[in-house]
Structures are given as structure tokens and as C-alpha cells.
Amino acid sequence: MPYVRNGHTWIANELIEQIFAKGKFSKRESQIIWVILRESWGWLDKRAKTVKKYGKEIRKYSITRRPISYTQFSERTGIAIPHIGKTIKGLKARKIIKEHYGYYKFNKNYDSYQNSNQSYRNGNQSKEVTEKVSKSYQKGNLRLPKRKLKVTKKVTSTASKGKPEKKQRGLKESKERLNKERNMILSQIENLLSQFPPDIKEMLEEYTENARLENKTQRISLQKRRRLINELYLVWTGCNHPILQEDFKKALRVTNNKQVPNVNYVKKVMGGIVKKRSQRIKGNGHT
């Protein structure tokens, strides 16, 4: 049975009443938003500012505590990956969520949301067409004005040059390339994490989180996150004995407590552990 004491997400009743209960979002949008809320407000951040509620100190993440790929969204919601991208793009355009290198944040200021039915048409030609059509309807003429044909010729002639199309195609290709690169890095990170035991995975998340908080902007790129995990993976592969693997866990735990996300510091702590053990073995041999 689900109980609050086993884990819950802090969300204001106002958001539930004004947004979710009134059906402001579509089914897919709601599924995406609930995943983001679960991975952000559903976790406690030990380093965040405390908020006292009901006599308890609450520290919740304002953004997702880890990057979320389209594949992970699809696994959690059951939505196909192509629809995931379109839904997230629409939520970002309406300023409902924010995204940076796979980290997502829900905008709780619902007054700043933009409607999905807003049209963003640019150019004088479209304005000219709408003005002429509205004037003709005001005069009682249900037919479109004759000059409308000339306007359409201008529009088609400018479109035939191909310059706006090439620019839009280039922007679309660059976005697709960035999305492919981001998804590729996220899959590489997932593959690296799958090589570690579950208890080490949690420590790796804290390790990369310390690296993010160490930065002035409190952000970390996917490339750096992959590099940090890969460095520790190389050290882990060298621990081909259970004793050395326990030494690695102890060193990583000490590194996280010291909040020093550096692989050289991990190696230094491991060396100290091995040295103390060898001295202890020598001391027992002399006795």
C-alpha cells in the first residue's frame, strides 16, 4: 500500500486546483509534467535552503536532480519518443517548463503561461491580407478581394527563392543534431552507470551533484558528467579484487563527504587505505 511516509512530492494545493483540476494541459503534457515534478520536487536536496513546514525542515530540488532523456520519458509515460519531443517543445514554447542540458524545471507561476492557440505570424503581407479580408466582410462582400491574388503571388514568389526555407531547414537540422548528440551522451552515461553496483550508483549521483554545486552557475554539462563517471569507471575496472572494490567504495564515500569531486582525490584516499592496511598486516606479522 502507498503511504506518505514512504515518499511523497511537495506540491501546493493551488497548483492542483488552478491547473491540473481545470485540465489546463493535454494528457501527454500532464504525463511529462508529472515525471518532471517527481524527479524535482519529489527529492530532498541536502544542500538547498531549508523551508520549515509543519515543524519539519524541507529541502526540495527546484530542478530535476538528474538529466532525463527522451527514452526515460517514454519508459515512464508509455508515450512514443517522437511524441515526447513534440510535447516537450510545446511546453517550452508556452513557458510551462524550462530545460538546460537535459535538466528540467517546472514553472509554477501559471499566470505567465502562454496559450497554445496563439499565432505567431510575421511579415507585412499576411497582415495586409487579413486587413483586406476583414474590410471586405465589413462591406458585406463575402468574396475575397481581387487584389488578394496579387498578394499570394508575392508570397509564392518570395518563397520560391528558397532563402527562408533554407534557413529554417538549417535551424531544424542543427536542433536535430544537438538532440541526437544529447541523447547519445545520455545513453553513454546510462551504459556507464549500468556497469556499477546499485550502491555505487547512488554515490556517483552524489559525486556529480557535488560537481554541479561546485560550479558558480550550479550547472554541469552532459559532457562533464560523462567524463567524471568515465574517470571513476576506469578506476573501478582496476579494482579486480573484492577488497579493492571495498576500498573504492570507502574512498568514494569519503570524497562525497568532503565534497571534492576529483578522481585524483579518490585515488589518494584509496592509496591511504591500502597503505594503512599493509602497515597493519606488517605489525601483526612482527607480533
- How many DSSP-defined strands? 4
Radius of gyration: 28 Å
- The CATH class of the largest domain is identified as Mainly Alpha
Write out the strand line-up for the largest beta sheet, numbering strands in chain order.
Answer: 1-2
Describe the structure.
It is a single chain. It is elongated, with a radius of gyration of 28 Å. The chain is 62% helix and 5% strand. By secondary structure, the chain is mainly alpha-helical. The longest helix is centred in the middle third of the chain and has 32 residues, at 163-194. Residues 117-127 and 148-155 have low confidence and may be disordered. Helix 5 runs antiparallel to helix 6 (148-161), helix 7 runs parallel beside helix 9 and helix 10 (242-258) crosses helix 11. It has helices spanning 13-20, 27-40, 70-77, 81-93, 124-138, 148-161, 163-194, 198-214, 222-237, 242-258, 263-286; strands at residues 51-53, 56-58, 97-100, 103-106. It has three domains: 9-112, Arc Repressor Mutant, subunit A (Orthogonal Bundle), CATH 1.10.10; 124-161; 197-286, no CATH class. Strand 3 and strand 4 (103-106) form a beta hairpin. A two-stranded antiparallel ribbon has the order 1-2. A two-stranded antiparallel sheet has the order 3-4. It contains eleven helices and four strands.
